[in-house]
Amino acid sequence: MADADPSALIADDESLHRKDADYLREQEKASEVSGKLKRRSTMHALKRALGKFGADGGTDMAAALTYYAVLSLFPALIALVSLLGVFGQGEETIDAIMEMLEGAVPEDAMAFIRGPIEQLVNTPAAGFALIAGLLGALWTASGYVGAFSRALNRIYGVKEGRPIWKLRPLLLAVTFLMVVIVACAGLMLTLSGGIAEEIFDLVGLGEVALTVWGIAKWPAMLFMFVLVLATLYQLTPNVQRPKFRLLSLGGFVALLVAALGGVGFGFYATNFGSYNATYGSLAGIIMFLLLLWIVNNALLLGAEIDSELERARLLRAGIDAEEHVALPLRDESGVRKAHEKQAKTIADAADIRRDAVAENARDR
Fold first, then answer.
1. CB atoms within 10 A of CB 244
2. pLDDT of 129-145, one tens digit each?
3. pTM of this prediction?
4. pLDDT tens digits, 212-246
5. Residue 194, SS3?
6. Mean pLDDT of all residues in the chain?
7. Predicted local confidence at residue 149, as pLDDT
8. How far apart are CA 39 and CA 35, in angstroms?
């Protein structure tokens, strides 16, 4: 049996991915096909995404993401409270967020979350004194983003090639962006009722502007969460998607499935479930975890759809993409090192086998 050739291993992996210029030309070719072929390839992509979600272990990956979400929940809330505390809006914003969640999150889970958060808000060290804690909380909270990155790499069929000094700052930046967006959404929640009326009167805006704001803030908050999802889909995997899409088809499906799944689960738990009888005081927490799992399943299904749509574009361009989605990698250095390490391990094993054969031959 021949020894492993590191260059051959690297070449085999790199052959699955294309350079940016080649991919852009292929995208132009894909746009020239007939509408009938586009519809056919899109339906093929949707059908294949459903099958691949199961083949990739989508529900298992969603369970892992739920675990990391729980680990990241309180660090993320610490970062959020610290950031809002800098602007003096921590207590008001947290109260508004809790009030909004009361109708969607089980009472036991709310009690589980509320206590530590209120303690954080009322701590005398809030403000700039918590900057160090904010950075530490962001580092811990980035665990979910890192897990999401690994899940998307699996969906796209690529290995992580970005070195740690590139990947970790990216994960921290995405986490910080998510916290900032949630903080902005929280501030928008507080800007309602009497507070909004006082501010609008102060700047000379009347009742009409207040009414418009009361309506417009909800789609604005939805836009912010769409931006978070688009950022996760675009930046976390080790592939270069051709262009940034604020709301891709996969993203739309993810939001729709998450919303329908959450509503459906709430209806089932309220009318048919027996969680209180089964789990007692832990029922709320169990339901909260199941809700997180449903949402993560929806996010991964959306990523599968986007991946298969990229494959469909390559197929329409006449590119061999039946087995692999040949998107260009963001960084190949880690892939090269992994292949070189694998080749060395295989070579060491081959040496052991040859030495064993030689010793057995001498014993005879």
1. 11
2. 456 666 777 787 788 99
3. 0.76
4. 777 787 888 888 889 989 999 999 999 988 788 88
5. helix
6. 77
7. 94
8. 6
Cα dihedral across residues 291, 293, 296, 300: positive or negative: negative
**Tokens at residue 118, please?**
């209120």
pLDDT tens-digit map of 150-180: 999 999 988 888 888 889 999 999 988 887 8
Which residue do the tokens 């199941």 mark?
Answer: 290
Give the contacts of 189 (CB within 8 A, at least 6 positions apart): 93, 96, 97, 100, 217, 221
Closest CA to 171 of 148, 198, 195: 148
* Selection from 268, 267, 272, 265 nearest residue 292 by Cα: 265
d(CA 160, CA 330): 9
Query: Can you tell me the distance from the alpha carbon of 305 to that of 311, in angstroms, rounded to the nearest whole number?
Result: 10
**Among the listed residues 123, 54, 52, the one whose alpha carbon sits nearest the alpha carbon of residue 82:** 123
Distance CA 297, CA 319 (A): 30
3-state secondary structure of 192: coil
CA–CA distance, 337 with 343 (Å, rounded to integer): 10
**How buried is residue 69: exposed, middle or buried, by Cβ count under 10 Å (0-12/13-18/19+)?**
buried
The answer to whether 19 touches 328, Cβ cutoff 8 Å, is yes
Please tell me the least confidently modeled range out of 14-23, 90-99, 109-118, 130-139.
Answer: 14-23
Q: Tell which wins on pLDDT, 329 or 192.
A: 329
Take residue 348 and report the two structure tokens written for it.
């060491």
**Among 84, 102, 98, 87, residue whose Cα is nearest residue 183:** 84
Name the residue with higher pLDDT: 63 or 8.
63
